[in-house]
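From the shared-data thread, chain only:
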Amino acid sequence: MIKKVNSIVSASWIYKADKDNTLLDDHSIVILEDEIFDILPTKNVFDKYEADDVFALSDHIIIPGLINNHTHAAMSLLKGYANDLPLKSWLEDYIWPAEKKHVSESFVKDGSLVAIAEMIKSGTTTFNDMYFHPNETAEAAVEMGIRANIGLVVMEFPTNYASDPEDYLKKGFDFRDKWRDEELISTSLAPHAPYTTSNKTLSLVGTYAEQLNLPIHTHLHETREEIENSISQFKVSPIQRFSSLGLLGPNLVAAHCTHVDEQDLNLLNQNNVNVVHNPSSNLILGSGIADISKMLDLGINVSIGTDSSASNNRLDILEELRMAALLGKGINHKPEILDSNVAFKMATYNAAKSMNKGRFIGSIELKKKADIVAINLDSIFTQPVYKPLSSLLYNGNQGGVDYVWINGTLKLNAGQLENIDLDKLTNIAKSWKTKIKTT
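Structure, as tokens:
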């Protein structure tokens, strides 16, 4: 008997990003409701299944939905606002003053909508966020149909969102309680950075994380200045300080780790800390280049992120992967490292593992959620294709992303966003630019 399913997606190649780095030729993915129901040779699929939605994607490669593991989505409204500056000046002289004037619920909602549209169009199906007014980010994510892990921001000083650490945490937990039953939304504790949170606050975060079984998402070792200031103030590096406070562990997602000495590297490794590499943001801010090859060699779980549009100017994970691979090869003088399998694992399997979501996203396997992306390799930029995953890493770009499914629902169809008014979002971004520039 032929079984009726929701969708059948056939492609020239399917990269599963599983433990064996399986690459299938001429296979089909069968989607039933929100899950991957079957994966089988295309020549056999219609003997077993029928669907109203059938996609025959020749010269396309299907990969798991990409995971942007470090973002501040709402800051898309500050894209290009303060380029070509070091992190300290960028933050203290431009970004924080602009946020003080303009960050509000409407700013976060609009900025998140703009960011999510860009992420879906470039193949991202899940993002790990950290910003103020999390309710509005969650609303935007659910409205757009994307999966989001949203950080409950904690810092010492007041902002338009909260007044002190206790206020940040109360508002964060109220948000968590409100959204705990929404499948697309999960939460983590998000102390902003070592230099914006006290030992008392960090210890409190660690206690809550253990009691509630929540991940911790933070910035860590982003610049040399951060490390130097920590040694001056606390006599230890930020990583060593986190270790003394009991914060290093498999539930910690540490963005950047751009500068780590052997002692810090060993602490990350011994405690199974998850590291998020943000190559473009680190380069634009002149913060440095993280040597993730050393981390990967040790078995540290390394994923990939864009950081915000304000410090990157794009939310394109494919671009980040290419950048990461090239930088790793260049600084180590080893062209064989960070190959296409290693790179794409960072944006899929590794990222899902760091968010404790590997049981249902991060690879294309039976009964996992149907978060998949189809990318066209039939263009002058990618042909001829000898090794499809390698071609995607070095020759692909967001313009080739044709189809995106999240939870089995088609979100990008032949390059066009489904049920999302892109012109409206573009005009929203323009209107905020006028407001921010003139105030």
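The first helix runs from residue 42 to 48.
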